[in-house]
Amino acid sequence: MNALAAHRIVFGGSLVTLALGFAGCVPQEKYDAAVTAARSYEQQLGSTRDELSTSRANEDRLRSQISQARADLESMQGLSDGSKVDLEKLRDAYDALSKQVAGMDAGGPLPENINILLASLAEQYPDMLQFDAKTGMLRFLSDVTFDSGSARVKDSAREVLRRFAAILNNPELAAFETVVTGHTDNVRIGKPETLKNHPTNTHLSAHRAISVRDLLVGDGVSPNRVEVAGWGEYRPIVENGPRGAAQNRRVEVFIRPMTYDTSSGSWGGSGGGSSGEPRPAAAPRATPEKDSTAPATAPVVTRPAPEKDPN
């Protein structure tokens, strides 16, 4: 590139000299053309010099990047050499976990005998119950478990809950707990008598979960094995229509390994933190409807303004 620049300099200079030398004996238009050509070559020379400067700057930057990459590579090699023991420990732990997973029952997270009992219960009450063996979840359809806008469990559903409690009290589930979660559709509560006890769908879903919990505890399930929650309309399983959707009005009960150590009073497993700290306390609660089975309180998550549509 330096040779090209030098060549352009000599060539351009020659043209200027020739233009000046013959200015007195050539026509004016030829002289002007020669001068124009000389200026053009001078501009090309300046551009070439700029390109050369840019190329040198790029070369310097690339050399710096290569030097940094080499330093990073040497650093990574040092870290790799120093952490081989840790990597081997992680690999051993992974292999052990893989073996545990491979040895688990293919039917789901619950003991096979419990899966059979829950599946049999759901088969006997297909209009009321659905069982998912993969997640250990039993779903109660609200339209057949509760009256509209009510948290009181229907008499026809109490026998089912009694039988479900007997399964939860099975010795094979001694190390398991249950999480009862209520859900509604997106139709706002409009009836004044319903609003007195359930100001929002979140209240109604939580109150229904508490009602199910109270019946399970009344049938012998230990209170420290049952957790309740209310999601209102915020976790639908199908799209809601103008009048909601019956599938979204439900109470789901999940059976999972215990997350609370009753002997030490500390949290562990998937439900506690690494420091053993207890989980946060429940949110403030509201008073449900007054009947013999209605829960005393329920958590409040949100309070959207009610609409006139009945629930």
List keywords for this structure.
alpha+beta, elongated, 311 residues, five-stranded mixed β-sheet, 8 helices
CATH fold-type name of the largest domain: 60s Ribosomal Protein L30, Chain: A
CATH architectural grouping of the largest domain: 2-Layer Sandwich
Shape: elongated
Element-level helix/strand string: HHHHEEHHEHHEEEE
Characterize the main sheet: 5 strands, mixed
Give, in spatial order, the strands making up the sheet with the most strands: 1-2-5-3-4
Task: Outline the low-pLDDT stretches.
Answer: 3-12, 99-107, 269-311
CATH top level assignment of the largest domain? Alpha Beta
Radius of gyration: 39 Å
Helix percentage range: 40-55%
Helical element count? 8
* Whole-number mean pLDDT: 75
Strand content: 5-15%
Secondary structure blueprint with pairings:
Elements: H1 2-21, H2 28-82, H3 84-103, H4 112-124, E1 129-132, E2 137-141, H5 142-145, H6 155-168, E3 176-183, H7 192-197, H8 201-218, E4 226-230, E5 250-257, E6 260-261, E7 266-267
Parallel strand pairs: 3-4
Antiparallel strand pairs: 1-2, 2-5, 3-5, 6-7
Helix pairs in contact: 1-2, 4-6, 6-8
